[in-house]
Amino acid sequence: MKFTRRANANWKGTGMEGKGTISTQSTTLDNAQLSFKTRFEQGVGTNPEELIAAAHSGCFTMQLSFLLSEAGFVPEDLDTTAKVTFEDGTITLIQLELTGKVPGISEEVFQQTAQKAKEICPISKLLNTEITLQVTLN
Predict the structure, then answer these.
(1) How far is it, in rounded angstroms, from Cα 27 to Cα 29?
(2) Residue 36 confidence (pLDDT) above 70
(3) SS3 label, residue 100
(4) Which residues have CB under 8 Å from 36's CB, separation 6+?
(5) Cα(18)–Cα(34) distance, rounded to whole angstroms?
(6) 40-69 pLDDT, tens per residue?
(7) Is the pLDDT of residue 129 over 70?
(8) Inter-CA distances, 63 with 35, 102, 117, 123, 124, Å
(9) What would the pLDDT profile of 80-117 be if each residue is shown by its tens digit?
(10) pLDDT class of 23 with cuts at 50, 70, 90
């Protein structure tokens, strides 16, 4: 299976005083606010780190569900929090915190399956991907 999803960001002004928006193809985000305050302080809107946390927690949890199903387990509830740490201009850590309710599974099998999901989740592997850039100056 191969597909491409897209999102768009627009920014006007300087890094500190400017403002921007982010929109997704699905329109779940539709001109969501982006600014210095939403990224580095507590402003209304979103930021790249929060979006990475959302993508990672969603991807990991879905991957885990697939792996559990393949092993014959039906998860009743999987809840994952992803914490993205931004430090001195770099994302230095992503902490995944998982709580699950899976009838009939042992602690050991759940731990092993969650570890495998972390390793093979596409977002976990993201930094090992090819990144291309196309630039247009108007």
Answers:
(1) 5
(2) yes
(3) strand
(4) 15, 16, 17, 18, 43
(5) 9
(6) 998 889 999 999 999 999 999 999 999 999
(7) no
(8) 32, 15, 6, 10, 11
(9) 999 999 899 888 889 999 999 999 999 999 999 999 99
(10) very high
CA distance 111 to 114: 5
User: Average pLDDT of the chain?
Assistant: 92
Q: What torsion, rounded to 10 degrees, do the Cα atoms 89, 33, 6, 84 define?
A: 40
Q: How far apart are CA 80 and CA 56, in angstroms?
A: 9
Beta-carbon count within 10 A of 14 CB: 8
β-pairing, 32-35 with 7-12?
A: unpaired
Q: Which two tokens stand for residue 101?
A: 């309710």
pLDDT of residue 127: 72
The single residue listed with the structure tokens 């994302």 is: 91
Task: Give the ranges where 28-123 is alpha helix by DSSP (H).
Answer: 36-40, 48-70, 107-120
